[in-house]
Write a structure and sequence with these properties.
Blueprint lengths: L1 H18 L2 H5 L4 E5 L3 H13 L4 E5 L4 E3 L4 H6 L8 E3 L1 H5 L3 E3 L3 E5 L4 E4 L4 E3 L2 E4 L3 E3 L25 H12 L5 E6 L9 H16 L4 E6 L7 H11 L4 E4 L7 E5 L4 E4 L4 E3 L2 E4 L3 E3 L1 H5 L24 E3 L13 H19 L8 E11 L2 E12 L2 E4 L5 E2 L6 H23 L1
Organism: Siccirubricoccus deserti
Pfam families: FCSD-flav_bind (PF09242), FCSD_central (PF21706), Pyr_redox_2 (PF07992)
Protein name: FAD-dependent oxidoreductase
Length: about 425
C-alpha cells in the first residue's frame, strides 16, 4: 500500500515538473521544512528526500534520538528494553536531510518562516507541521507537571524517562497493590493504547506480583477493539483486570498525588500503589500559538492535501490535526506524511494533488504471544475524511491461539517495517 502511494506520488511529481513553466524549473530548489521528527515528521522528511531529490528538506526536532510511543507498553510488560524503541536520525541525515536539533518557537504563516528557540529563522516554501500533542495539565484537577512525577503519564515519550519511571514504580510496588489507570475521553493519541497498557501491566503483575490488580477507570463507555481486549483479559488475567466505564463511575475527576488517590465522579476515592494518568490532550503548543488550531484544540485540515484550513502552505499531519474518523495512530501519521509531501510538491509545481487514500493498521499486544489488530481505509470526502464502508475490520473473536500468536509476530514485523520506513 505504501509502495503504491510512492509510485503514484512520483508519477504525479514527474508530470507536474514537465508541465511547469521553464522559469519555475530554473529557480532555486524549493524549501520544505518539517517540524517534528516522529511518525509523521520523520516519514515526511525521508519520503521527500527519496521521492523528490531536487527539494531541499530541513527537519526541526529537539531530541537527538526518538523513543516511540508504540511498543512503549511492552517495556512496561518486560518484553522490551528502552534501547529497542529508541531510534537515531543518522539515516535521515545520510540521505541528505538537514537536521536541526532545536525547538520551533514561532511560525509566521504570512512571512512563511519558522523561528527556532536557538535564534535561527528558517524560510520555507512549504511547511510540514507534525509536532504531536500537548498534555493539558490542569484539565484534570490535581494533575500538573509535578504530579506526573508521582503519577506518570508515559504518553509523550520524549527521552523515555516517563515510561521508565512507571516501570520502576511497578517493580517497587508490593504484591497485592492496586495499579490505577485514568483514561480520558476522546479524542486522544492512540485510541487502543490505554487498553494495551492495561494488558502489559497485567502481564507483568501476573508473573511477578500475582496478588495485585489493575483498576482501569475510563471516561468513556466503549473503546477500540473492546471485545477482543476483554476476551484476552478474561483468558489471560481473570479478575486481575477491572475496567470501569463512565456509567459505572469510571470517570476520574480529581487526583491527589500526595495521598496517591484517584477520585471518581460519584465521590469514590481509590487508594493506589501505582497510578498512571493519561490526561486530556490537544495539538502541540506551536500549533495553538500559531493560530492553526480551532476551539477544539486541534487543527482543521483539507482531507486531500492535509493543508491547514487557515494557512494553505502549512500541511499539518499526525496527531495534531482533527482528521476524525481517522484515529491518531502512527500508521495514519506515516500515511498522511506522504500525502502531504506529495500534495505540497504538486502545488509548488502547479499540478493537482494525488488522490487521497489513507490506510490504518493498528496492532495491540494483549499478552506475550497474543496479538490483535484493526484495519481501516479512509478517503477524502466533500466535507472531510470518510471511512470506506466494509473496507476493514478487526481480528476474529474466539479461542484462536494460533491466530493470536501470529498477530503478535505480525505486530513485531509492522514495528520493524514502519520504523525502517521512517528512519532508513
Amino acid at each position: 500500500m505504501l509502495r503504491t502511494l510512492t509510485r503514484r506520488a512520483s508519477l504525479g511529481a514527474a508530470l507536474g515538473l514537465l508541465a511547469a513553466p521553464q522559469a519555475l524549473r530554473a529557480q532555486t530548489a524549493a524549501r520544505l521544512v518539517v517540524v517534528g521528527g516522529g511518525f509523521g515528521g520523520a516519514s515526511a522528511a525521508r519520503f521527500a528526500r527519496a521521492t523528490y531529490p531536487d527539494i531541499q528538506v530541513t527537519l526541526v526536532e529537539p531530541l537527538t534520538r526518538f523513543v516511540t510511543c508504540p511498543y512503549g507498553n511492552l517495556l512496561l510488560g518486560g518484553y522490551r528494553q528502552i534501547g529497542d524503541i529508541t531510534h537515531s536520525y543518522d539515516g535521515l541525515r545520510a540521505q541528505g536531510v538537514r537536521i536541526l536539533h532545536d525547538w520551533a518557537a514561532a511560525i509566521d504563516p504570512a512571512a512563511k518562516t519558522v523561528r527556532l528557540r536557538g535564534g535561527e529563522t528558517l524560510a520555507y516554501d512549504k511547511l510540514i507541521l507534525s509536532p504531536g500533542i500537548a498534555l493539558r495539565y490542569g484539565a484534570l484537577p490535581g494533575y500538573d507537571e509535578a504530579a506526573a512525577e508521582v503519577f506518570p503519564h508515559a504518553w509523550v515519550p520524549g527521552d523515555g524517562s516517563q515510561t521508565r519511571l512507571l516501570r520502576r514504580q511497578l517493580e517497587a510496588m508490593p504484591d497485592g497493590g492496586v495499579v490505577g489507570i485514568a483514561i480520558p475521553a476522546n479524542p486522544f493519541r492512540c485510541p487502543p493504547g490505554p487498553y494495551e497498557r492495561i494488558s502489559m501491566i497485567a502481564a507483568y503483575l501476573k508473573r511477578h506480583k500475582p496478588r495485585s490488580k489493575v483498576l482501569a477507570l475510563d471516561a468513556k463507555e466503549a473503546f477500540s477493539k473492546q471485545g477482543l481486549f476483554q476476551d484476552g483479559w478474561k483468558a489471560l488475567y481473570g479478575p486481575m483486570v477491572e475496567w470501569v466505564p463512565a456509567s459505572s463511575d469510571g470517570k476520574v475527576i480529581r487526583v491527589d498525588p500526595a495521598e496517591k488517590t484517584f477520585e471518581s465522579e460519584f465521590g469514590v476515592r481509590h487508594k493506589l500503589a501505582v497510578g498512571n494518568v493519561i490526561p486530556p490532550q490537544s495539538a502541540a503548543r506551536i500549533v495553538i500559538d500559531s493560530g492553526l488550531a480551532d476551539q477544539t484544540g486541534w487543527a482543521q485540515v483539507d482531507p486531500t492535501t492535509l493543508a491547514s484550513r487557515v494557512a494553505p502552505d502549512i500541511h499539518i499531519i499526525g496527531d495534531a490535526n482533527n482528521a476524525a474518523p481517522m484515529p491518531k495512530s502512527g500508521f495514519i501519521a506515516n500515511n498522511t506524511a506522504k500525502q502531504a509531501v506529495a500534495s505540497a510538491v504538486a502545488a509548488l509545481r502547479g499540478a493537482a494533488p494525488p488522490e487521497a487514500v489513507y490506510f490504518n493498521t493498528c496492532y495491540s499486544h494483549v499478552g506475550e504471544e497474543y496479538g490483535i489488530s484493526v484495519v481501516n481505509i479512509f478517503r477524502a470526502g466533500p466535507n472531510g475524511f470518510v471511512e470506506v464502508p466494509n473496507s476493514g475490520g478487526v481480528s476474529p473473536r474466539g479461542d484462536l491461539p494460533e491466530q493470536r500468536r501470529l498477530e503478535a509476530l505480525y505486530a513485531d514485523a509492522w514495528y520493524a517495517s514502519i520504523t525502517r520506513d521512517m528512519f532508513g
